[in-house]
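Design job #97: recover the sequence.
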């Protein structure tokens, strides 16, 4: 039984109250925080309030929401009314949103218990959570290593059982890559499936909110609770949301799985490739038809992303000027105040992206960089279309390596960017992607990436579930969680 299902049956049978469950997770979160630093803030008061409300409903015999009593951690780039939202940036310190994001609103309606706001790379820019201006988060499997990023806190929290499930955001891989590094399931939905209202914007045409969980079933249950049309987000899709858990059957006979040739070779650690190869063999044994697909434009994915994402970021981050949000540095003139606030408020990676984006969008360079990148983006989407002519679901490693040591890549932004080589094309095409554990290399988890057709979440979950049921990787926990 999945963690969510198990807790809910304990609640329904009266074995435990939502308050008991909340306290158990809050206590473990607190106990592990000095070592892990997954959370920017624990929201104990709010959690206990929400748990008491669930217990009151239970007592009154009222029906409970689909996530009633389930402790959840929220990435600190989701606006939470009355609770500071920092994006791990100095510039937002002291910003208390006057409104609630649609996702956290839906979670509260579903009865979930928010235990805290998790650490991230500043404004979700990074692959290791080391760009946080607040603290460094450790990987629960090896405290000297990074948890991945940018949703590193959310991944670490689930991996170490500080929360049952969590929310992340994925612009170029920020859910899937940390899920791989921390040995949990992480999923980026189809662009527009989950509302971005109240998600602090990084690159608006790429950003998607999605679930972390210990199992595919729990990820599906969490997506179910947050997906759906939202009039507050103009890019939100107005589509029927299927019942994802009903697609969770282990039978995938005849499903066509396409191995992306370009993502299996260069730059991939040999152990990672070997484990992914073993996963492919396992799929074959399960009755899937394995085909190889070619996506020749994917080699331009990283370059394309690092024009488009910074361009959008430079526009989105223009609003932080010391007037409307968070921090302000006083100066003699208005322009001086803007400049000083932005200079002191933003960290080096954020500044780098604002400069790249402003440059790429400037009149003389727009055609050569931004417009060209948009054209390549279309070609990447076409490669996916072609591949989906031959396959139902695509497969690759999630990341070319296992979690690296803290500090290893901080002086070399390009090598840090390479971490997302395999996840970025998925965002550029707006498709759903999922990472799930497929083995260990030197004691560190390795992630398998599955990619679905647009709005093909059900099939994606089914493919992931079948593999998960046939393996035991997802049952392993880091020592820190079991001690
Ligand atoms: N690591 C990528 C970046 O730095 C992706 C980040 C993300 O998905 N938010 O932009």
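Job complete. Output follows.
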């Amino acid at each position: 039984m999945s963690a969510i299902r198990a807790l809910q049956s304990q609640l329904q049978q009266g074995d435990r109250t939502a308050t008991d469950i909340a306290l158990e997770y809050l206590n473990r979160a607190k106990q592990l925080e000095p070592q892990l630093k997954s959370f920017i803030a624990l929201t104990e008061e709010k959690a206990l309030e929400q748990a008491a409300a669930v217990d009151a409903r239970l007592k009154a015999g009222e029906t409970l929401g689909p996530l009633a009593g389930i402790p959840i951690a929220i990435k600190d780039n989701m606006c939470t009314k009355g609770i500071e939202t920092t994006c791990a940036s100095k510039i937002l310190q002291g910003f208390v949103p006057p409104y609630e994001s649609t996702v956290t609103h839906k979670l509260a309606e579903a009865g979930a218990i928010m235990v805290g706001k998790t650490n991230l790379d500043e404004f979700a820019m990074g692959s290791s959570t080391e760009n946080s201006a607040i603290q460094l988060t450790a990987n629960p499997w090896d405290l000297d290593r990074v948890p991945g990023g940018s949703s590193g806190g959310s991944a670490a929290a689930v991996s170490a059982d500080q929360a049952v499930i969590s929310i992340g955001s994925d612009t170029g891989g920020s859910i899937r890559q940390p899920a791989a590094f921390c040995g949990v399931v992480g999923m980026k939905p189809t662009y527009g499936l989950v509302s971005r209202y109240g998600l602090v914007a990084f690159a608006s045409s790429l950003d998607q909110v999605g679930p972390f969980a210990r199992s595919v079933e729990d990820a599906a249950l969490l997506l179910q609770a947050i997906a759906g049309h939202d009039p507050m987000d103009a890019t939100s899709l107005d589509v029927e949301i299927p019942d994802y858990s009903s697609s969770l059957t282990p039978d995938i006979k005849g499903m066509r799985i396409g191995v992306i040739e370009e993502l299996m070779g260069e730059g991939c650690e040999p152990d990672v490739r070997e484990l992914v190869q073993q996963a492919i063999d396992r799929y074959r044994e399960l009755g899937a038809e394995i085909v190889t697909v070619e996506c020749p434009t994917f080699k331009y994915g990283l370059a394309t992303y690092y024009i488009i994402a910074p361009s959008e970021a430079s526009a989105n981050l223009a609003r932080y000027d010391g007037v409307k949000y968070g921090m302000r540095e006083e100066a003699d003139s208005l322009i001086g105040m803007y400049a000083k606030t932005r200079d002191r408020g933003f960290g080096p990676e954020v500044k780098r992206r604002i400069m790249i984006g402003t440059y790429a969008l400037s009149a003389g360079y727009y055609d050569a960089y931004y417009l060209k990148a948009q054209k390549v983006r279309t070609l990447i989407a076409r490669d996916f279309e072609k591949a989906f002519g031959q396959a139902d679901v695509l497969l690759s490693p999630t990341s070319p390596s296992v979690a690296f040591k803290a500090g290893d890549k901080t002086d070399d932004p390009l090598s840090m960017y390479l971490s997302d080589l395999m996840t970025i094309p998925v965002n550029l095409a707006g498709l759903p992607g999922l990472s799930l554990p497929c083995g260990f290399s030197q004691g560190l988890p390795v992630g398998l990436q599955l990619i679905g057709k647009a709005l093909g979440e059900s099939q994606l979950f089914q493919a992931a579930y079948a593999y998960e049921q046939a393996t035991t990787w997802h049952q392993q926990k880091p020592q820190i969680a079991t001690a």
